[in-house]
Design a protein that fits this description.
This protein is mostly helical and 510 residues long. It contains 28 helices and 2 strands. The radius of gyration is 28 Å and the shape is globular. 38% of the residues are buried. Keywords: Repeat, Transit peptide. This is DYW domain-containing protein. GO terms for molecular function: RNA binding.
Length: 510
C-alpha cells in the first residue's frame, strides 16, 4: 500500500485494499493508516476518511492523515475542526499531536489566511518543542508569508529554522515575491543556490517569475526560463502559466505564444494565462477565440478566465457579448460572479455610456459584494462622461468603503474641473487635505547594470539614489538638447518658447 501511495497507483492500491478486506486486516491501525494515506495522496478524501473510520480508536497517524487530507483538498475548516476533535480525544499519548499534525493544521490555517489561530498553534507547537522542526517551520513561513504585513514574522521563523530544504526556501521567496520585493526575492534565490539547494522546484520558479512579471523584468525572466528548461520543469503547469504571464506583462506576447504552443498537455491555468495576457494587451478577438477553443477542448473555465474574457469585451466595446458571458457564468458553468467580474461589466457599460444600467447592475449585487471595487468602476465611468449626480453617489460609496483612499476625491475633482466647476474641484482637494489623504505616488522600474543587473525602482522627483546628482545633470542635458533641436526662431516667439520650456522642465522629473 505504501508503494502504491508513493507511485500514485490508485488502481493497484484498490486491489490490495480488497485483499485486506477479505483477510480482515483493513481495520488494523497500520493497514488503515496506509489505506488512508493512499487515498489522500490520490485526492480521494472520502475513501481516506472511510479507511480511518474502520479503526476502533484513532492514533496520532490516523488523525494526522485526516487533517492532512482535509487541508490538501481545500477543506481547511474541516481540518481545523478535526484537530480540535483530536485534542478532545487526546486522553492517551497515542492520540497526542506530533510535529506532522501541527504542520498539517498550520498549513490549513495558511490556506484560509487564519493568522490568529495560526499564531496560537505556533505557540502551542513551541511549547511542545515542535516549532523548530522543518515541517512545522515550513508551514509557519507559508502562513506568515501569505498574511498581509507579516513578512517579517515569516523571515524570523525562516532564519531561526536550522534545517532548511527547498520547500523552506520556496516559501520565503514566494512571500517576498508576493509583496513585490523582487530584489530581496532574487537575493534569497542566489543564496539558496550557492549554499543550500542548487536545484529549485516548480514553486520557487513560479514565485520568481511572478516577481519578474510585476517588475516587467524580461532579462531576468528569460534567465529563469532557461533554468526551468535545464531543470526539466518548463512543462509543469505552474511554471508554464507563470512564464506566459511573465512574457505577457513584459510586453512580449510572441514568446508567450511560443511557450503556450509548446505545451505537452492542456490545463486551465495555461489557457487562462493566455486569455488574460491577450486581453491586457488589447488583443480582444484573440482572447475570446482562445476562450471558445478552451471550452471546445473540454476544459472548464474558472473565475480568472472569465475576468480575462470580460476585460477583452471591455477593450473591444462588446457590451452585449460581455453581458452574455456574465449570465453564462452561473447558468452554463456553475460559477457565481464575484465583485471583480461585476467591476469589469460596470466598466464595460460605463465606457459605452450606459451609466444607468451600470448602476442598476450594482444594485442587483449581493450587499457584501458591493465594495469599493465596483463603485470605483462606476465613478471612473461617471468622471469620463461628466455624470455628476451618479458620480457623487458612487464617490460617497467609495469613501464609505475606503475612507482614507484618495481615488474618489481625485476622480470627483477631475469631474468638476472638466465641467469648469473650479470651486467644487478645489473643495474636493481641500477635503483631501483636511482628512490627511495623500494621493499615491506613481513609480517606475528599469533594469540597469552590466553583468550584475538589478531592477531600479524610482518615483517622480526621486532623490534617494546615491548618484541622483549625476542623474539629474544628465536629465538637464537631455532636455537642453531636446529644446535646442526643437527651437525654430522664425516660427515661434520668445514668450511661447519660454513657456514651453518651463512646462517641459517642470514635468520632466515625472
Amino acid at each position: 500500500l505504501t508503494a502504491c501511495a508513493d507511485t500514485g497507483l490508485l488502481s493497484r492500491g484498490r486491489e490490495v485494499h480488497s485483499l485486506c478486506a477479505k483477510l480482515g486486516f483493513d481495520a488494523t491501525p497500520y493497514v488503515a493508516n496506509a489505506l488512508a494515506t493512499l487515498y489522500a495522496r490520490c485526492g480521494d478524501v472520502h475513501r481516506a476518511l472511510a479507511a480511518v473510520g474502520r479503526m476502533g480508536s484513532r492514533d496520532v497517524a490516523a488523525w494526522t492523515t485526516v487533517i492532512s487530507s482535509y487541508a490538501q483538498t481545500g477543506r481547511a475548516k474541516e481540518a481545523i475542526l478535526a484537530f480540535v476533535a483530536m485534542l478532545r480525544d487526546g486522553a492517551s499519548n497515542a492520540a497526542r499531536p506530533n510535529e506532522y499534525t501541527y504542520a498539517a493544521v498550520i498549513a490549513a490555517c495558511a490556506n484560509i489566511s487564519c493568522v490568529h489561530l495560526g499564531e496560537q498553534l505556533h505557540a502551542q507547537a513551541a511549547q511542545r518543542g515542535f516549532a523548530s522542526s522543518r515541517s512545522v517551520a515550513n508551514s509557519l513561513v507559508t502562513l506568515y508569508a501569505r498574511a498581509a504585513g507579516r513578512l517579517s514574522a515569516a523571515d524570523a521563523v525562516f532564519q531561526e529554522s536550522a534545517a532548511k530544504d527547498v520547500v523552506s526556501w520556496s516559501a520565503i521567496i514566494s512571500g517576498y515575491a508576493q509583496e513585490g520585493l523582487a530584489g530581496e526575492a532574487f537575493a534569497l534565490f542566489t543564496e539558496m543556490r550557492r549554499h543550500h539547494c542548487p536545484r529549485p522546484n516548480e514553486f520557487t520558479l513560479a514565485s520568481l517569475l511572478s516577481a519578474c512579471a510585476t517588475a516587467a523584468s524580461l532579462d531576468a525572466g528569460r534567465q529563469l526560463h532557461a533554468l526551468a528548461v535545464a531543470a526539466g520543469l518548463e512543462h509543469h503547469a505552474m511554471v508554464r502559466s507563470a512564464l506566459i504571464d511573465m512574457y505577457g506583462k513584459s510586453g512580449n506576447m510572441s514568446d508567450a505564444d511560443v511557450v503556450f504552443l509548446n505545451r505537452t498537455k492542456d490545463d486551465v491555468v495555461s489557457w487562462t494565462a493566455m486569455i488574460v495576457g491577450n486581453a491586457e494587451h488589447g488583443h480582444s478577438k484573440r482572447a475570446l477565440e482562445l476562450f471558445e477553443e478552451m471550452c471546445r477542448v473540454g476544459l472548464k473555465p474558472d473565475h480568472v478566465a472569465f475576468i480575462g474574457v470580460l476585460s477583452a469585451c471591455c477593450h473591444a466595446g462588446a457590451v452585449e457579448l460581455g453581458l452574455r458571458y456574465l449570465n453564462a457564468m452561473s447558468k452554463s458553468y456553475g460559477l457565481e460572479p464575484s465583485k471583480e467580474h461585476y467591476g469589469c461589466v460596470v466598466d464595460l457599460l460605463g465606457r459605452a455610456g450606459r451609466i444607468d444600467e451600470a448602476e442598476e447592475l450594482i444594485g442587483g449585487m449581493a450587499a457584501n459584494e458591493r465594495d469599493g471595487v465596483v463603485w470605483t468602476s462606476l465613478l471612473r465611468a461617471c468622471a469620463a462622461r461628466g455624470e455628476e449626480q451618479t458620480g457623487k453617489k458612487a464617490a460617497e460609496r467609495v469613501m464609505e468603503a475606503e475612507p482614507w483612499g484618495a481615488g474618489a476625491h481625485v476622480a470627483m475633482a477631475n469631474l468638476y474641473a472638466s465641467k469648469g466647476q473650479w470651486c467644487e474641484a478645489a473643495q474636493e482637494r481641500h477635503m483631501m487635505k483636511q482628512k490627511g489623504v495623500v494621493k499615491g505616488v506613481g513609480w517606475s522600474s528599469v533594469t540597469v547594470g552590466g553583468e550584475e543587473r538589478g531592477v531600479g525602482v524610482f518615483v517622480a522627483g526621486d532623490r534617494t539614489h546615491p548618484q541622483d546628482n549625476l542623474i539629474y545633470e544628465m536629465l538637464d542635458l537631455i532636455y537642453y538638447g531636446v529644446g535646442m533641436a526643437r527651437y525654430v526662431p522664425d516660427q515661434m516667439n520668445l514668450a511661447s518658447e519660454v513657456e514651453l520650456m518651463v512646462n517641459t522642465y517642470s514635468s520632466s522629473y515625472n
